[in-house]
Each structure stands twice: as C-alpha cells, then as structure tokens.
Amino acid sequence: MIDVDSIDVSYDGTKKILEQLSFSVERGAFIGIIGPNGSGKTTLLKTISRILSPMGGVVRIEGKELAAITSRELARTIGVVPQETAINFDFSVMDVVLMGRHPYIDRLSSESKEDINIARRAMAMTGTEQFRDRSVNEISGGERQRVIIARALAQEPKVLLLDEPTSHLDINHQIEILNIFRNLEGNVTIIGVFHDLNLAAHYCDTLILLDEGMIQAIGSPSEVLTREHLKRIFNINALIRTSPLTRKPYIIPIIEEEATLRGTLRIHLICGGGTGSDLMYELRQKGYALSTGVLGINDSDYETAKELGIPCIREPPFGAIGPGSLQELEAVLRGVEAIIVTDMPVGKGNLDNIRILERFRDTPIFLFGRGEAEEIKPIRDFTGGEAERLLAILREHGAKPVASRRDLLSKLQDLERHARPSGPA
Fold first, then answer.
1. By three-state DSSP, how is residue 314 classified?
2. N or C: which end of the chain has fewer CB within 10 A?
3. Half-sphere exposure of 401 (CA within 13 A, CB side)
4. CA separation, residue 175 to residues 166, 171, 245, 350 (Å)
5. Looking at residue 75, what is its pLDDT?
6. How far apart are CA 56 and CA 218, in angstroms?
C-alpha cells in the first residue's frame, strides 16, 4: 500500500531530519510511530502527506510515486489529523466537517445529500453531532480535536495519518477515538504518531521506533518495546509486562527514589507465581544485592528477575527441582545474609525451595506476606500440609513473619545496622 524508500528529508536543505528511511505498510494496517521529541515523527507524516518533499528517495502509494499524484486524487487518498487544531475563521462544526468532502465536490457545486449524510455519520462516530451548529471556536480544545477527526473521516480516505490524535482528549475520549480508528482497520491504512507508548502498544499492529531521524527498530509492539530500547532511546528504566487479556505489552516505569539507607545486604528471594515481582523491584531499587530461585522459566517472577538482571536459578517449566539446581541453591544460600520467602503457592515441584531452608536456620529468614507473629496467614499449600509443617519449624527457630513491604524494609535495615561494625569511640 505505502512504500517509503530510502528517503532523506531536510527543512533547510542541509541538516537531515530524516535519513535513509525505508519501510512498507500493508493495506489496512495500523502503524504506530514512536520516539523521543525531535526524532522526526511529525516530519515523517508531513513527507507521506506531501507537505514536505524528500531530498532523496521516494514515497509510493499503491505503486504510484507521491509526486505524480494529483492534488485532488491525493486528497481522496490521504486524510490527516494534525497536531494543531486552531481554526482562524468562525466556521460552524458542520462546515468544518463538510470540508472533508471538498475533494469529491466540483468547484462550482454545493454539497449533495450524500455528502451531508457522510458528514453526519463522521460526527456521530466522534461524538460531535451535538455541536454541529456551534462555532468551532466556541468549543473546547478536546471537542475541536474530535471535530478535526470527524473532518478526516468524512474524507473517506484510503490512508489516515494521525499526528498525536488524542493529545488534547481526556482518557475516555482517547479510548473512544482510538477504538474508532481500530474499527477502520482492514478498510483504511492508518499511520499514527504516539507519545503514549502503552496506547501505541495496545492499538497498533506494528511500531516504528525513530531516533535522530533514523529507524532504530520496527516490528510488533513486543519486539519494539523492550527494556533495552526504552533505556537507550528514552532513557527510562521500566518493566515490560504482557496483558493477560490482550497479550500486548505494557510498560511500568521504574521511578528511582533516593533511599534513606542504601542496602548492602546480600539477599536471596524464594518466590513464585508473581509473589516476588514487586519485591524484586523495590529491593533492587534500595540497593540490595539480590538473587532468586529456583523458578520455572514460565513463571512471571522469573520474567521479572530476567528483566531486572537479577541472578536466578531456573528449571524447565512444570518440572521438579533437579539435583543440580538444589546444589546451586545451597551454594547461593551459604553466601547471603538474609533469606525472604514470599507467600507463594507451594506444590511438590517447588517444595524443595522450602525444605532446604532447614539447613540455614542461623541465617535471618523473613516470611513475607504471612501476617504478624500473632496472626499467621495460611499459605497456599498443595503438598498435603508438608509445606506448612516446614514453615512452622522455621518459625519455631526464629523465622520472622512480615506483613508488609514497609515492615520488611525496616527489619532489613535493622539487620544491616546491627551487622555494621561500630566506628571508633
């Protein structure tokens, strides 16, 4: 449908804003363009819409070079939702939406009944019909953005270019409008610039990551939105999760905070089933040297450990812990100063993670998420009571139940203070 072939674009003829960009877009696809400010996202849309002409390379639509397409044919092919929505004249909302029909109306003719019906359908889709007789300058910026979108839909384009189409909208209207665009898939090819990476991941089939005028990555949202790309291009540290409903990735930024006490303890975390993920993030942020496992490689806690670069003893999914992993776990536990056991489900496959702790009663053990000592929360025990029995033995020998992350951090800091040698008197 659209072929961008080795284009170079400059505003002044010297400094290139886009350099050697090449990609293809299939008919009916929904493509998201992402990247930091100044990376060339809007410039790329302006080039595809022929507002800008490339210094080198070529853009083709349906096999035809963009420069060879007449203005009327181009207006029937491409609709644009720009970033700026200011309109200098006092047109009514209906008049603005009907402007989308101009490519279909002869110079001396008026709008037909069909044109008016198409405009009304576009307004109904965008929730702007209630404003139809009002001046476009009397409505809010968000409402005006929806009118501009309605104008583009009234154009009935084959290609729709969106430059941050929901930037002025509140969250409910963002979702409504993006759902409209997604429902056009298959009939309209959509290329949109997004600042919200989670919205881009949810709605787009393919993402193009730009930086400094060049494509840094192109592919599915899961292929493009990686921790490495986010760190290198956007300079943010983040966790990438997969939505259980959509199977699309979503980003959780890691907000670094200055800790009141930078942890120096070596800690091993025994967890599973997602019970350790938040704790890994917080303990790592506080500066503690973490290790974890044994975990199956299909476990969400394993995915978190891998993303955060935390050493993890791992086993294939759905299997019991093997002798090699147990030896590795024992070696790790001999070198740590604290052990944390989360409120994880315990079955025969991971029971040895608990059983081995009987050999490490002299190491401080914290039973996280288990309530306070006077009100112990029962674990999810699928071992016929064996796991609960082992944990009860650990409690008898000094393992401390901890209810919250705040309490756990306090106990770790107390442990660290007592472990530090006192200074000279």
1. strand
2. C
3. 18
4. 9, 6, 16, 42
5. 92
6. 21
The pTM score is: 0.69
Tell me, yes or no, whether 106 and 7 share the same domain: yes
DSSP element (H, E) containing 174 = helix 171-183
312 sits in the region (left: phi over 0; alpha: psi -120 to 50; else beta) called: beta
What is residue 331's predicted lDDT score, i.e. its pLDDT? 96
At position 43, the amino acid (one-letter code) is: T
- With 0-12 / 13-18 / 19 or more C-beta atoms within 10 angstroms meaning exposed / middle / buried, residue 13 is exposed
Task: State how far the alpha carbon of 180 is from the alpha carbons of 150, 163, 203, 423, in Å.
Answer: 11, 16, 11, 67
Distance, CA of 418 to CA of 425 (rounded, Å)? 17
* In a domain? residue 287: yes
On whether residue 310 sits in a domain, the answer given is: yes
> E strands, 248-404, where?
249-253, 266-270, 289-296, 312-315, 338-341, 365-368, 400-402
Where the chain has pLDDT below 70, the residues are 84-86, 168, 185, 255-263, 370-379, 420-425
Q: Token pair of 105, please? A: 């109306």
In angstroms, the CA 179 to CA 79 distance is: 18
